[in-house]
Amino acid sequence: MKTDDLIRGLAADTRRERSLESGLARALCIGLAGAVALFALILSPRAGMPGLMMEPRILLKFIVTLSLAATSIWLALRLVRPGADARPLVWALAIPAGALMLGVVTELVVTPLPGWMPGLFGHSAIYCLSLVTLMAAPVLVSALYALKRGAPEHPMLAGAAGGALAGSLGAALYALHCVDDSPLFVLVWYGIAIGFVTAAGALIGRRVLSW
């Protein structure tokens, strides 16, 4: 290969990497716009927001969901590039997981035993599952569409990363409305909802991200 050809090839690879990241950013803007529209049609912000976001248990919901979303973006972009080793990035998942586990342990310590189950089940478990999934849907569609521009060796894993991204952003949006603040509730019901969207992303990604 001539030197000029090598330089042109490297330049083309750089342009593709930049376009993948910018394409995902644009797709997320579109998906989030759809999710916010659904939120406006169906829900409303919790009374007292945004002032309540400084309350530790409420703040924890946003720390967990948004840090998971950031980690999932990182993972998705790595996984859609052939030959990329995403294993080191998996450790970044310890940030949202660790924050949530700290909140759960604190809740169990400071809350009397009879208060554990009410905190776990809350007032809106079914609504949480359905609404997080609903608001994650436009984000998932947009994210997978953008990730199609990559060439993942493991489309199912890349799709799962896109699903985790969509689920966590849907959960963060729902948290603006949610009145159940116990970390136990977040662990179980937010966790199930995000897990469902992650599984959906994996199954869809296995088909649409294959090349």
Description of the molecule:
The chain is mainly α and 211 residues long. The chain has one domain (9-208). Helices cover 76% and strands 0% of the residues. It contains eight helices and no strands. The chain has helices at residues 3-42, 56-79, 87-90, 94-110, 116-121, 125-147, 155-175, 183-208. The longest helix is centred in the first third of the chain and has 40 residues, at 3-42. It is globular, with a radius of gyration of 19 Å.
List the helices and strands and how they pair.
Blueprint: H1 3-42, H2 56-79, H3 87-90, H4 94-110, H5 116-121, H6 125-147, H7 155-175, H8 183-208
Helix pairs in contact: 1-6, 1-7, 2-4, 2-7, 4-8, 6-7, 6-8, 7-8
Transmembrane segments: 24-43, 58-77, 89-112, 124-145, 157-177, 183-205
Pfam families: NrsF (PF06532)
InterPro entries: NrsF (IPR009495)
Sheet of most strands: none
Q: What's the helical proportion of residues?
A: over 70%
Structural class: mainly alpha
User: Based on CA inertia axes, which overall geometry fits?
Assistant: globular
- Overall tally of domains: 1
* Count of extended strands: 0
- Average pLDDT works out at 88
Strand portion, in percent?
A: under 5%
Transmembrane segments: 24-43, 58-77, 89-112, 124-145, 157-177, 183-205
InterPro entries: NrsF (IPR009495)
Keywords: Membrane, Transmembrane, Transmembrane helix
Protein name: DUF1109 family protein
